[in-house]
Every structure is written in C-alpha cells, then in structure tokens.
Amino acid sequence: MNQLPVIYSKTRRGLFLRLVANGVLQAVAIIGSMLLVRHAFNILLNSEFDDPEVHMSDLSQVWEIVIFALGLMCFTGLAAWLRFKERVDAERLGQVYIHQVRLAVFDRMNHFSPRALSDRSTGSSMLRFVSDLSAIRRWVSLGMARIVVSLIITVISLSVLAYLDLYLALCAIIILSIGLAWNFRMGPYIHHVIVEARRRRGHLAANINEKIRSYIVIQAFNQRRRERRRFSKQSQRLSEAMIDRARASAGMRIVNDGATALSMAAILSLGSLEVFRNQTSAGNVVAAMAVVGFLSTAFNDLGRVHEYLQAFRVSKKKILEFMDTRQLRGRSSKLPSLHVSKGEIKLQNIRIHGVLKNLSGTIPGGAHLALTGDNGAGKSTLLQVIARLVDPDRGKVLIDGQDIRRCNLASVREAIAIVSPDLPLLKGSVRYNLRYRKPDASSEELKRVHRLCKIDDLLAQLPGGEDFRISEGGGNLSLGQRHKLALARALLGQPAILIVDEIDANLDQQAIKAFEDILKSFRGTILMVSRFEERLKLVDYYWYLANGKLDAAFKNDKKTSLLTVS
C-alpha cells in the first residue's frame, strides 16, 4: 500500500517551529492587550478618578492615557502582523508539502500500465491533481498549522486569565469547549456532504472532458439539446451538493459565533456579580471579555479544522487508490538491459483476459510481419504487449531469448519504437515532438530522419517550420501530417524493432511513398497492422488473428503455410 510523504519532516521542521513561535508571540500580544485594558478600566472606574476636569490638568494622568493608547495600538498591530506572518508561513508549509505530494503522485503515475490508466476516466484522474491535492493542502495550511497556532494562543491566554480570575476563565473555557464539541459532533454529516459534493464534481468533470474531446460527434448528430439536458442535470446536482456543503460549513460557523457571544454574555453576567460582591475588579471582567474577543478568531479556526480534516481524509483515500493503479514493473537499474542483435521475437502462451488467448508464435529476426484479422481480433493489443505497453496476464515475450519483463524497461523502450493512433503528438513545437523519443539526438541523426521521412517537405507547409506550435493531439495538423511526424519521432535513435499500427490511412501519395521506402530500408524487425494490400505486399510474413488466437501464419513469397490452428 502506498503512503503519502510525512507532513512533519526535517525539511519542514523549521516552518513548524516558526508557527509555534508565532503562536507564542500572538499569545503575548493578546495578554499584553488584556493587561492594558484591565489596568485602564481599573483606573477609569476608580472613585478617585471621577472628575475629568481636575485630572485632565494632571499631566501624569494624561500621559497614562496616552501610554495606554499607544501600548494598545502596538500590541494590536503586533497581533495583526503576526497573523499575517502566520498565514504566509502556513501557506508556505502547505505548498512545500503539496509540491512533494504532487511529484510523488506524478512519479507513481509514470509507473502505471497505460492500459490500467486508460481504464480510468480523464476527468477523475484530473481531480486527483487538482481538487484532491487542494484539499490536502488546505488541511496542512488551514488545518494542522492553525491547530498548532490556535491551541498555543488559547492555552497561554486562558492560563493567564485563570491566574487573574479562575471562575471567569472556567466560564469561557466551558462554553467555548461546548461549541467545539458540537462542531466535532457534526463530523459524520460533514464527511457525507464532502463525499457527495466531490462525487458530483467528478461526474461533471468527466462529462465535460468527454464532450470537449468528442464535440464534433455532438455537432454531427445534432444532439446539442440532449447533451445540454444531461449537463444541466449534473450541474444542478453539483449545485445542490455544494449548497449542502456550504450549509454545513455555515452551521459550524454559527455555532462558533454563538459560543463566543454566549461566552462573553456569561462572563459579563458572572463578572458583574463578582464585582458586586467585591470578588474581582471591573478591569478583570473587561479583560476577560477582550480575551474571548481576541480568541474568537482562533476558535473559528479550530471549529473549521474538522471540515478540513474530513475533506483531507476523503481526498487522501482517493489519491492512495489512484497510486495503487497497476504498474509496469522493470524500472530497477539492477535489472539487465535488453540487448538486441537479430531482433527475433518469440511469443509464449500470451493471454490477456477477454482479448488474447494463449497466443504463441515466432517472428524471425529482421523480418517484416503484418498482422491481419477482423476488428477486435487483438492485433493492436498484441503489438502493445510486444512493445511492453501492456503486460499479459500470462505468458512471455522473448526478444533474442530475453524475457522483456525481466529486462530494464528503459532499455526495452530504447530498442522498440511504436507508431500508433493511441500515441498522439504532444502539445508543443514540431521540434519538441520530433526530438521527444531522443532529446539528445545528434544533428546527423536528425538529418537522417528528416531525409527518410521527408520532414523538410512537411515543414515547408507549416508557418515557422520546426517552431510551429502543435495543439493537443495534433488537432491543427492533417491526419497525414500527424502520422508522418509520429513516424519520424519513432525512428529517431535507430530502434532495432519498429511497430506500426494502422498509420498509413489518409496519407498523400508522397507520404505513402516515403512510408513504403521506410519499410523497405528498415534493417530491423517490423511488425505492422495495415488494411492496404499495397503495403502488405512489402512484408515477409502474415499472421492472421481471429478471436484472440493466432489462426494462421503464412510466408509472403509463395503463401507457404507456416502454422494452422484449428
């Protein structure tokens, strides 16, 4: 089972210590303000200080009021500045942590089996990186960080208040604690509304992603109204779920505000009784009310912690489930590299549930082989197995006698290149896409591929040549241009084995000739799927697949049957 990085680590210890120090200093600022207020009210309500005209002429009294005002301004300003620094440090703590989590999730995703990842909707996968990571960041920045600061402020401030007047402090603690307890009692309901809102958001995101990718289908079949109705229902359900979440959050805020107001009213009532009985001073009562006022922000923060915690728990669970997606093994540097000499490919009892059924066969090294068969026969899946984009449930793929699952995956990628509609061009420049397989390719190698694939002719058609920006999936290129660039990308680095999956459709005559020249001149092993008889004539062998099985194998020269399966 995967785990997220530890929140409290050496790299973040300094930020935690700064937050602790910040909490202590905020408590000092609150205590300073409380003592000033207490002192000022004790003086103002003193029976000797009942004639303003007399005492305003006494400079010592005037200076005392001025010092009180300046002191209160200083402590209030210090508290505001510390609050600002707390927010910045807390956000920095959250961002430093979430950057590490984001990289951990991305690195884990790079190990996924492409087939396993494709089984997930793009919308739900995007939610892992956007919504779920944001929920984790909020827990660290607004949850954990505020727990640290708010608890320190609360404990120190109420301790000093208890020293001045134990009963007033107990009154504040009891009422504020009841408010906190009530909010924590709402935990299951908060968890439910967060899960529901997140589920609704996922459905809407998946629908939007699908419609953007297949918008032309909606237009072609004139289903705009139908899709709008579906979108409207999902949007309405999300709105209702978000309103429920806001209602729960507002309920927690009301409880906090109500507990603060009730606490101040209780302190005022109890304090008045104690003043009447000469058990405390008016300054202590006002100071206690000031402390509760200052602590209201801290208690509001503590009250929302449970909401952040519930969202964190839901998002953490989803991210860990995402990280447990089935992987492609073989990235360890301790594994031996794949060394290709002849390029012979031997398949032993390849089985993928529902697609391939105990398929076996041998492709001679340096041979050009075409896979044929009806749609759904398993041709493209078999090519992906050989390219090790998919691992079979059972069976082996041996290249020159080496089990590719027991070879370092990087060396397998180096030896095998694949061109397929399932491997689209990436968003970026033409140069970026051409060099993608081999970013450090020499200029001589680039020139070789340019000549082989007639890339210069293609660049002459594009504004800016190699600097032309390709949109996502190559949407601003023709299908033929996309396939030509994809073929050039695969050939860079001179792979020993080339896999071509139905990319010769919609090519112009020049591109077709270039493609055929590549097939004729390529010295390694070629496996291809094509529906065009002209290209099939160029291969050495045919394999006919039916229902996931190798039904027949023929040699091209005299249609010599190599294999027949009943």
Number of helical runs? 18
Strand % is: 5-15%
Principal-axis shape equals elongated
Radius of gyration: 36 Å
- Please describe the biggest sheet, giving its number of strands, its sense, and whether it closes into a barrel: 7 strands, mixed
CATH architecture level-2 label of the largest domain: Up-down Bundle
How would you name the oligomeric state of the polypeptide chains in this document?
A: single chain
| CATH structural fold name of the largest domain | ABC transporter transmembrane region fold
Instruction: Please give the CATH class of the largest domain.
Output: Mainly Alpha
Low-confidence stretches: 561-566
What would you note in describing this structure?
With 566 residues, the chain is α/β, with parallel strands linked by helices. The chain has 2 domains: 10-20 and 88-323, ABC transporter transmembrane region fold (Up-down Bundle), CATH 1.20.1560; 345-564, P-loop containing nucleotide triphosphate hydrolases (Rossmann fold, 3-Layer(aba) Sandwich). 63% of the residues lie in helices and 11% in strands. The chain has 18 helices and 13 strands. A 7-stranded mixed β-sheet has the order 6-9-10-3-11-12-13, with helices on both faces. It has a 4-stranded antiparallel β-sheet with strand order 2-1-4-5, covered by helices on one side. Helix 5 runs antiparallel to helix 7 (187-213), helix 6 (166-185) packs parallel to helix 10 (282-323) and helix 7 crosses helix 10 (282-323). The protein is elongated. Residues 561-566 have low confidence and may be disordered.
